[in-house]
Amino acid sequence: LNPKFPGTIVGTTDSRQAHIIRGISSVDHVTLIRVQGSGMVGMAGISQRIFGALATGKVNIILITQGSSEHSVCLAVSPKDAAKAKKLLETELKHDLEIHRVADIIVEDDLSIIAVVGENMRQTPGIAGKVFQALGRSRINISAIAQGSSELNISAVIRRVDRHKALRVIHDAFFYGPRKTAHIYIIGAGLIGSQLIRDIYQKQPWLLKERHLDLRICGIANSRTMLLRHEGIPADNWQDLLRNTGQKSDLQQLFHYVKENQSPFTVIVDTTASHQPVEWYPHFLGQGIAVVTPNKIANTGPADLFMRLHELAIANDTRFLYETTAGAGLPFVQAVRDRVASGDPIQRLEGVFSGTLSYLFNTYDGSMPFSKLVQSARDQGFTEPDPRDDLNGLDAARKLLLLARIAGSRAEIDDVQVENLVPEKLRKPDNISRVLEKLADYDADFERIRSNAEKKKARLRYLAVMDKNHLSVKLTAVKSDHPAWDLKGSENLLAVTTDAYTDPLVIKGSGAGPVVTANGVLNDILKVID
Amino acid sequence: LNPKFPGTIVGTTDSRQAHIIRGISSVDHVTLIRVQGSGMVGMAGISQRIFGALATGKVNIILITQGSSEHSVCLAVSPKDAAKAKKLLETELKHDLEIHRVADIIVEDDLSIIAVVGENMRQTPGIAGKVFQALGRSRINISAIAQGSSELNISAVIRRVDRHKALRVIHDAFFYGPRKTAHIYIIGAGLIGSQLIRDIYQKQPWLLKERHLDLRICGIANSRTMLLRHEGIPADNWQDLLRNTGQKSDLQQLFHYVKENQSPFTVIVDTTASHQPVEWYPHFLGQGIAVVTPNKIANTGPADLFMRLHELAIANDTRFLYETTAGAGLPFVQAVRDRVASGDPIQRLEGVFSGTLSYLFNTYDGSMPFSKLVQSARDQGFTEPDPRDDLNGLDAARKLLLLARIAGSRAEIDDVQVENLVPEKLRKPDNISRVLEKLADYDADFERIRSNAEKKKARLRYLAVMDKNHLSVKLTAVKSDHPAWDLKGSENLLAVTTDAYTDPLVIKGSGAGPVVTANGVLNDILKVID
What we know:
Chain A is of the alpha+beta class. The first copy, chain A, has 20 helices and 20 strands. Chain A has helices at about 15-20, 45-55, 80-90, 95-100, 125-135, 165-175, 190-210, 240-245, 250-260, 275-285, 295-300, 305-315, 330-340, 355-365, 370-380, 390, 395-405, 430-440, 445-455, 515-530; strands at about 20-35, 60-65, 70-75, 105-120, 140-145, 155-160, 175-180, 180-185, 215-220, 225-230, 245-250, 265-270, 290, 320, 345-350, 415-420, 460-465, 470-480, 490-500, 505-510.
């Protein structure tokens, strides 16, 4: 197969805007002087007096701007001229200040000017939009703007401390044709985190060539150390760098670093299963920084938090994406979201969301006692270290809860009716081998349920169901017309019944493991940038 | 279920930016005067002389802008003052013009100023980005910009002819909190078009309330007449309006109307199955206008056209979306695209893409001869008027082709190996009843194939397969481990095998009909705006 992606730009179309822009220039340090007052409106001659006063002192004016219906004239001068300029203006406008025709002469220092210079830019709509969107999305405040000539120059006055960031983001916006750059910070470098880092490094050249997407990993943090490099962390030895040169992990410091280096597409990826990063989601989203995560904690904690995170993402024009919190890379979240988004009300959600429970009941045919099957699954690494963490149904319940919330439910985890497959007497903390041994006492119970189902030509599945407002996860006997009937291996399944899909829309496939999870996370990252 | 969508803004967050903006003002008619020349750089006193000259003539200056490293000063004045201003400047700068220190005094008329006025806007990054993005995405050229005061005023000088459009798009960008407005033009008002129009009108209130998306239908065209209303077509009687007050349909006129009224989210929806609208896709996309369509013609015509449309969409920062060209509303296109997009190479695509052929073989169990089954399906309206248009496999071949192209193939339709189920002798134009009668001569052949499959515990499916570079659609006997084994009714199916999904990712469900197709089109429209 030719690996070209539809949308790959061939030929010259991509450099159209790059040709229009000739360069980005900057004036490293300027002072802004604003003469303001409502009495100045329509006052012919005030400009002459302002500029006349400054000319007598040979003050060179770098930038001038005065908007319509504006009560002020704004000038940028060299810092060395600032005090003199202010004095000259105070002298010239003494009377106007006394009678409050001019209210104030304000001096602001520590500013820079960034100018985008080009040709025929006025004939190309959207250049100003691109410049100011890049600055705005990077949270760079703009003190003054001027654009006026035919041979275009858009000048923006910004805080001096932001000048490098501003140069970088404007450069990124124009000088790579349609290329977009994502600056990615990964929290957690365990199974999923490491796989994701490998995937990003491996797919970087292809993504750059075929999709014009430049994915840079700018931060990696584990629970001990973190490595922050806004210019990008080299692919070959990130583990060594993290271990040997990383600073002590500190999410607050991480947040400030990310904010200082914010670009239009900055993405935080939380690959942990812990609470600490979740507490920082509101800060990141509130700053317009995207959050992508396979961590279910935010989505299955209080419904209010879940709502609040979405509100913050919308209000700050960024994304909160978590496709991999249910079904790993399978598009479960997207499917539910798309149905709801288009106003196609969901009547029923059904699914098998635990790969382990899927495997156990897809395999359980009576030829091996249930407890032995669990033991064998554990031996193959298909279960949690303590298989009761699978058998208790909580993981499936959480996934159902988060999908239900996307479907419009505001339920809490306690509202989900959960059938715990761990017999009551085996739920206390105990040695796992002993638990599995004792589980054999219940093999006859499991077998009775199984053979009863078989007699009715049904199969057992650990099924999650949202029916109206009712949420449940439990062992269910399904017949051959049920979408879960022919599940295989550890497949996950989602069946969505809506007004438009009276026969359900079904998605199934591998729903667990670091490979598909990392791939799903990467897909979410690409959705931030796309 | 509480129908609230995650991300619904509750409380006050949504109006944050609306509070910052106090208003939008405009100066209906201004003239821009630009004094320019490379000799002016760093020439202290030039501003004084320019403004002094204008002050002697009592010329009121509405807007001033001079950027850094710029060789010009740009002034907006009232048109009545323009001639006088030019004369005064020519007199004052006579010598500078002679020695080419000043190159030119240029006057541009027929301009307007749009000003966004607010408070503390300088503390809120992104305001300028929002203003200029709205203008840029609406293809409004900007002649000059000024922003300078603390009580902010961003002024943009634009062509006078664009002033209403500019006021509208800036208003839309700020005054509805996070609300976004889509301006939708629908070509084709047949089964799918009418269903889509009904859906949009029905879901409008919900989308506005819960998702802050304002969907306005601004144009409807059928093959005879078209109705163009940039302010929105009323829901209740569009059919009457289209019939009685619509103008003669003309895609060129439609294009010009859409362009004149372009907003940041203008969407063309082609719900026809004809060639004419497709010829206009490049024009729309080239103008930054999104194209959404269930029409397969563009995707299954020359591969070059397919590529070119994607290139145009990317180069013009807009969308070309066609989820419903395969599997109707099922996310087949998205699933393939997501796999490829994340650099997860597709090893194999398999599917059942014809609802009619799915129905025929899911139902065909030998109890009724094949020809009778076709007749009965036709009687129930499950086939094309001429069932040979289903049986020839071309529709399935086209869908396979377009999915294969998304997966990276550059094949043409002739590269697909198609098994035509219409016996060779029945392919000529003929009376349909007679064809169906003659089809009975082949019932034994079909039955032999079926019973052979049954003997091998297999079922017949009309399967589309992409395996490496090879594309084929043909009758295939599948066993119980195949994802198509348990298809029911007229379900469509897609199974994607990739590096990450060694067991395929499977999507199935209802894949035809105006309801799910219109719903899928609506979903694409929402993706343009989201």
